[in-house]
Design a protein that fits this description.
This protein is α/β, with parallel strands linked by helices. The chain has 6 helices and 5 strands, in the order βαβαβαβαβαα. Bound molecules: 5-O-phosphono-beta-D-ribofuranose (RP5).
Amino acid sequence: MSKYNLPPRVAVIMGSKSDWEIMKNCCDTLKLFKIKYDVRVISAHRTPKRLEKFIKECEKNSTNVIIAAAGGAAHLAGVTAALTTIPVLGVPIESVLKGIDSLLSTVQMPAGVPVATLAIGKAGSINSALFAVAILANTHIEISRRLKKYRDNFEKKVPKRPF
Ligand code: RP5
């Protein structure tokens, strides 16, 4: 089977176990769409060898998207993107500086190695999964159907009046 026909697969990595409370929202969202995913604690500065090894595994098992979350001097998504051409989505985690440091560290990649950066915290965590789903929906009709259904339900939940 060609790697392009394999079931879609997403990897979710985060710099610390302390990021899990936010990143479980990402995993719950992937689950909702029945997307296969791996989830790991990998830090660019604390466990650089683990990062390199994991990225090699992702390339071997044809992972389609890597979601990388980190807080503070958040270089995990950037380093990940430097080591692979698999699309990398970055989630800035709230920090002592309210996540502004994480956001800027993740989003401000110099031209050539992109990281698609989501919002700080829970919204970014959920949206990173939805963005991965949207990427996969381009080539997987069933995922595209699920995404459209999700959006329809989303619209139904918004009240027409504020009272
Ligand atoms: C980053 O430092 C992690 O992604 C986390 O958001 C932050 C704090 O990590 P811990 O000190 O809680 O392990 O690398």
